[in-house]
Design goal:
This protein is mainly beta. It has strands at about 15-20, 30-35, 35-45, 50-65, 70-85. Helices cover about 0% and strands about 55% of the residues. A hairpin with a 2-residue loop joins strand 3 (about 35-45) and strand 4.
């Protein structure tokens, strides 16, 4: 996802998407996504920074480090990030 900061309206921007897990992680990391990654974000400009908040959810198949058997894991994470502009110079 790419957003041009100047394109974020004064009231903010909501963004929802379902993405394939491979678009986030390289295959060698051993992550097997059983469902698309659900993304629900809100972006708000505040002065020269952008506030991003939202939720990311996915279902993964992982391997147990003790028995080496596969198991399902539901990933659900709340995100709160603040992006500042790069200093010019």
């Amino acid at each position: 996802m790419r957003v041009i900061v100047d394109d974020i309206p004064d009231e903010g921007l909501n963004w929802r998407s379902n993405e394939e897990g491979g678009s986030f992680f390289i295959e060698e990391e051993g992550l097997d996504f059983l469902s698309p990654v659900k993304i629900d974000l809100r972006l708000v400009r505040e002065g020269n920074k952008v506030l991003l908040s939202g939720r990311v959810e996915a279902e993964l198949q992982l391997v147990c480090s003790r028995c080496l058997g596969p198991f399902r894991h539901c990933l659900s994470a709340e995100l709160v990030l603040i992006y500042y502009p790069l200093s010019a110079g």
